[in-house]
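Structure in, sequence out. Go:
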């Protein structure tokens, strides 16, 4: 996770499960860390494709604020706003 510049909160919030790790590590090639925002973006979208619960959306919203690439994180916020379980509480965190 450090190599790909994931904030430690991904692990602390239990938002980087083994299944996601296995997918990302199987696609890793040396040098990918130079574009690590693509892997983090992929992690956000991995969750968003799974119809995350409101609690998970809250965690994703928090993680957008911690991402080192705020341009990418701001784009992810638009997808969170379109999620099925999005509500005002999630919006306040965004």
């Amino acid at each position: 996770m450090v190599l790909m510049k994931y904030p430690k909160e991904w692990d602390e919030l239990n938002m980087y499960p083994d299944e996601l790790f296995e997918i990302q590590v199987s696609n890793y090639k040396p040098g990918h860390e130079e574009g690590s925002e693509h892997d983090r973006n992929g992690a956000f979208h991995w969750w968003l494709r799974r119809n995350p619960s409101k609690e998970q959306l809250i965690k994703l919203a928090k993680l957008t604020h911690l991402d080192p690439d705020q341009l990418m994180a701001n784009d992810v916020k638009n997808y969170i706003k379109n999620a099925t379980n999005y509500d005002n509480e999630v919006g306040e965190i965004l």
